[in-house]
Amino acid sequence: MKKLFNSKESMVDDMIDGFVAAFPGVVARGDHPRVVRKAGPKTGDKKVSLLIGNGSGHEPIAMGFVGPGLLDANVVGDVFAAPSADLILEGIRDVTGEAGSVLLISRHEGDVINGNAAVMMAEDEGLNVRPLLMYDDISSAPKGEEDERRGAPGTMFIYKILGAAAETGMSLDDLVALGEDVRSRTRTLGAAVRSGISPLTGDVMFSLPEDEIYIGIGVHGEPGVARRKTGPVKDLVAFMMEKILEDRPLEAGTETVVMINGSGGTTQMELLTIYSEVEKYLSKVGIQPVSPMIGSFVTTQETAGFSISVFTPTSEMLSLWRAPQHSPYFPVIGLGEGG
């Protein structure tokens, strides 16, 4: 498959160049060129900062979600590779004031190792930083072993809700506790119909017969847990929703936020069809969907696939989910719901 880039060595920095040039009123480079932070003065001392380090190749996450009401900074690693601990430390230095900061860590081995090391180095420098581990993919570890699961697109609920809460002046300890509660209320399951291709090697990430769907792949093309024959979307959605609700049963009447995330090679037509089937499924079992989010936010190099994330918020969390934000690629939430 043909790809557009200058060189493998420069593709990440070229991408950041374009992003910063396109949105100069919202984002800026940090002291290190691989740190993208909010434009303007650094965060004041009374606000807790929120940042994350992650590999490239999944855009617009997380660089596209830097801005008021969301992330204060994103530390950008190489393609599908966690940024180094030293680089994450640069980002922490860039945004941490007296109120401290939360380093979000999506649970993947390299991110966890380097993120925790960066936190320790920051603490040695006297910076007040707390890590928050994020995981939601039910296919990666069984029920009862939730803390062994991978981070998946449902982690975006934490980005948004903690970003809004930080703007209210919430303390560092309360933000971490809120993030842990959001995490406990979120479940995600993904599926793919076609592999993406690594921009570094040109190789497909996994093989799949034309008439099969892969259930449970990770965001780096990690193996799934089951295969199904292709068929109507409603059957696939029903299968996936049964697995999600087996993992976290919900009572009838529960307000539930659904996120349908495209993996990079799935059209909006397909994603909206999937959401339609999810909405019908939830209505049948008496669960009330509210404030959905549908689009391609956590991608894997044109992989054709999607994930369903189900999140059951408290009233406070729902208000924070709907709160205004100003970032290049996070959508407006709650349109038509009165706010």
From TrEMBL:
InterPro entries: DhaK_dom, Dihydroxyacetone_Kinase. One of its GO terms (molecular function) is glycerone kinase activity. GO terms for cellular component: cytosol. Pfam families: Dak1. The keyword Kinase applies. Residues 7-330 form the DhaK domain. Keywords: Kinase, Transferase. GO terms for biological process: glycerol catabolic process. Transmembrane segments: none annotated. The keyword Kinase applies. PANTHER family: TRIOKINASE/FMN CYCLASE, TRIOKINASE_FMN CYCLASE. This is Dihydroxyacetone kinase subunit DhaK.
